[in-house]
Amino acid sequence: MTLADGDRQGDILLDLKDHQLELRSGGSAANTMWTIARSGGRAVYTGKVSDDPNGEFYRHDLERNGVTLYGRPMHEDHGPTGTCVVMTTADAQRTMCTHLG
After folding, report:
1. pTM above 0.70, yes or no
2. How many domains does one find in the chain?
3. By residue range, what is the domain housing residue 83?
């Protein structure tokens, strides 16, 4: 994983514009809660998401999959929702570029 600022991550996304891109929610804690919810358990997640398009996608995606989110979104003035660009090769090798928000 490589840490990057929002501008660097934006440059990477521009370089990938001709490739198939998918927006997904993730992170180890959220992925664990998603698995618990999909397995019939009660899953509650709390974490920092902003009131921005990525935060809205993240919240709705987890809720749609049965995860209850605790807490309110942060105002965008406190920074954007963190994002991670994950690039995967045909043989499943991954490279990650993370902006913590």
Report:
1. yes
2. 1
3. 2-99
8-state DSSP, 78? G
53-100 tens-digit pLDDT: 999 999 999 999 999 988 777 877 788 999 999 999 999 999 999 998
Label residue 65 exposed, middle or buried (CB < 10 Å: 0-12, 13-18, 19+): middle
Q: Is residue 47 a contact partner of residue 15, using CB atoms and an 8 Å limit?
A: no
Helix (H, G, I), strand (E, B) or coil at 88: strand
Q: Which residue has the tokens 């600022």?
A: 5
- Computed from CA positions of residues 75, 77, 78, 82, in that sequence, does the dihedral angle turn out positive or negative? positive
State how far the Cα of 30 lies from the Cα of 69, in Å rounded to an integer. Answer: 10
